[in-house]
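Question: Now follow the chain.
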Amino acid sequence: MTNDYRLKWFLIISPFLVLLLTKIGIIISIKYFQPEISWIPSFIGYYFSILLMFFIATKYFSFPIKQVFTLSLKPVPKFGLLFWGIIIPALLPIAAFITQIKLVPFEFVIYIIIFSCINPIFEEGFWRGFLNFLPGNSTFRILYTSILFSFSHLFFWSYWFKVPMIIIPTVISTFIMGILWMWFMQKRKNLLYPILSHVLVDIFNLSVAVYYGIISFGQF
């Protein structure tokens, strides 16, 4: 079995390994931490599992990890690509921002900014950068990663949020985001723009902060 063949299979199964490891971390976090903060060690576990996939691929399959983080502002994408692949995904959660901002304590803004700067690097690095090397054609890579990216939000957030009005829009919107961001990556092989778009998504969605505000108002 060649190294390239094993790498292809590792890329295919790596999302499931990330989901499994993260689930274990969530179960442990929920058991030992209060609901309001249990998401913090859970996400640390999520990021650790992504780093582990990078390490395994690099160490044992000679994966070119440097090619994942292709970050450049230039050349600026054409308007159509920029609009559909970057701007539209960033604006999808703006309704949540407008309607839910009043629920979030002002002092929680710092947590929004920190989370929104860290999370997109890991998620885009894995779901769009790392998995852009999946075998198969462009359509397969787009659908495979988008479905699993969307499912990961259902898989993770359903531990804290049982309300359909939160979970269903999250799953649908992340599926659309996954399609558009990966489509952009297929065209440009530049991770910087999806990361920036994802930062805006997390800010507009207020990431954990929106849901923290809902928890604080007794809807958890």
In short: Residues 216-220 have pLDDT under 50 and may be disordered.
